[in-house]
Amino acid sequence: MDIRRIDDRLSVSPQIDADDVAALAAEGYRAIICNRPDGEGADQPSFDEIDRAARAHGLEARYIPVATGMVKDEDARAFAEALRTLPGPALAYCRSGTRSATLWSLTEARDRPLPDILARTKAAGYDMSGVARRIANGGKTPTDTGDAQYGVVIVGAGAGGIAVAASLKSREPGLEIAIIDPADIHYYQPGWTMVGGGIFEAADTAKTMGSLIPRGVTWIKAAVAAFEPGANAVILDGCRVVKYDRLIVCPGLKLDWHRVEGLVETLGRNGVTSNYRYDLAPYTWELVQKTRSGTAIFTQPPMPIKCAGAPQKAMYLSGDHWHRTGRLREIDIHFCNAGGVLFGVKDYVPALMDYVEKYGATLDFFHNLVAVDGPAQTATFEVKAPDTEPRRVTMAFDMLHVCPPQTAPDFIRVSPLADAAGWVDVDQATLRHKSYDNIWALGDVMNAPNAKTAAAARKQAPTVAENVIADIRGVAPKAQYDGYGSCPLTVERGKIVLAEFGYGGTLKPSFPKWFIDGTRPSRAAWLLKEKMLPPIYWQAMLRGREWMARPEPLEKVAAE
């Protein structure tokens, strides 16, 4: 038997025989649901045979036959009633298991989020994307045919989404564009490190979403539930459907706080904080000011994460404050990194190591945070160093700054747009989807091997805009993204190591070395971060002004 578990109450399988029932009973199943009509196959046992075998072994059986490709709403209601009244766990079967998995999906539509349903069935080997609209519609067949249609639909109104919309409008003012995003507030996330270091005010990193949507662009304030790339459609929560000629996907990534046991319950108290959340970054600064002795732990999860330098930025700014206030000798700093290097581009490591030594920080490599006990103020790490047996260590703390594990959003991971790891699958040069010619992606959600930073999105947005316009005009892609990303590493108040690099760790400095040598801490880089980058973000990047971000011509990059 090929039994595939869906949840605690139901498993599904391809066709079973009467001889299989004894094994099902032995495994603890208490009911069987047959979704295959009798006589569909020549060698198929009848439901009566399965029913007799079930009763002989103390199981109940229910017959809910469904014709191939014709799962009706009343079939889903009958299946729901069977699950409600039959003892569990139950096994449902048809020829392949697909009809049974479909019925479960429609049954659960009112109680589970669509991405969860798609993820559970996908894990069991069944693709439910073909009935995503029905699931989003509460399990019922949609009757709404008034779908909206746009030339370009952009999913996500973060840095990448608004920037690419503005860049498109600057090139083609008459283009009909819609941005889909449920958020009311847009955040300048690169500023949160500075909030946690007492330099910026949190309120200065937030603006209302409506004030930033480019003029002439329609804002659809809703969440995306699923994609139908074959039908050029995006399905919203509630089963509204938005159709497109071209689609740009940039919803960012998911901060998976729940993956660390006990973390959610203690965030914002017991000395546990994170600059990865707007409401917690001020608490980071509060803790830094209050901490006078003890142990301060800063964590970094496995890659990929947004702004890979942010976890250690928090450490450096905290250490700098303790150094300036004469407390550093009384504080034991630990940087617990799930990886094996301080920074992925080796050219910047010597300057960073100088500050690690200055602050007396201990580098605990291959330490991945897996649990936090807030009241006891202890953090547990899984240690997986090369050529050693995995082990767990628990460390006491007075202050704990957490960088959470990060994944692609659920509705992306289960979609046809995702690669095996769950990220949108694009060509790393043109940022066009590898399977769907009218879809592009940018920002943190795609699988190009670049640093996930706002600076990267600033370069990607014009590239995508240029290539979308080229496609509209019926010509080949014109622009290429070279993997540029920037990470201003705030090593102390007033100095920054400005890491700028592209694919493969190639250095990509924006300024002459006499002005800013990115491999050394500099005051000029600090002024860039503190004074120039915020207005560049709000006034240039989000308005389609591509200062130092014009796309590289495809021919030029190819020639290099």
UniProtKB/TrEMBL annotation:
Residues 2-109 form the Beta-lactamase hydrolase-like protein phosphatase-like domain. GO terms for molecular function: FAD binding; hydrolase activity; quinone binding; sulfide:quinone oxidoreductase activity. Pfam families: BLH_phosphatase, Pyr_redox_2. It comes from the Bacteria. Its cofactor is FAD. GO terms for biological process: sulfide oxidation, using sulfide:quinone oxidoreductase. The keyword Transit peptide applies. SUPFAM superfamilies: (Phosphotyrosine protein) phosphatases II, FAD/NAD(P)-binding domain. PANTHER family: SULFIDE:QUINONE OXIDOREDUCTASE, SULFIDE:QUINONE OXIDOREDUCTASE, MITOCHONDRIAL. NCBIfam families: TIGR01244 family sulfur transferase. This is NAD(FAD)-dependent dehydrogenase.
